[in-house]
Structure prediction request, 171 residues.
Amino acid sequence: MSEPGIREANSADVPILLTLIRELAEYERLSHEVVATDELLAAQLFGPERVAHALIAEQGVDVSGFALYFFTFSTFLGRPGLYLEDLFVRPAWRSQGVGRALLGALAARAVARGCGRMEWAVLNWNESAIRFYRSLGARPQDEWTVYRLTRPAIAALNSTARLQHVPPSRP
Prediction:
């Protein structure tokens, strides 16, 4: 089996990215949470205020997986970080180096950007992913708990905010 080709996604990849996102959601038993559309992905990944990036893994003409990531910032390190939002390898291509190749490509981007860390979350029940990540040297951060506000909670918090509206910053 040959090494997968890894490339930056482009706007023509939006339909396949959405398909892969839906496949990931099905695998994670979260299909009911997918509300992304081609239009939303195109705007967020390739629009003027791009907030994330994606890599596509290919085996010949077949798309075997993807990684979606964005950059964060660590105040303690004084450096950016790379946050891996999603990594998905289609079942037919698992255990063939696709995930490692995608993570290697992300590591190259992290090094080029001077990142102090790469981070991601994994579902507690996904033992195969946990074993894979540990084999790469990744370790869980047990001292931190992830918190999340959903859109309704954000709206509710916003409605009670006492500060004057501050327009979003522009890059």
The longest helix spans residues 98-113. The helical segments are 14-27, 38-46, 98-113, 127-135, 151-160. Residues 153 and 159 are 10 Å apart (CA to CA).
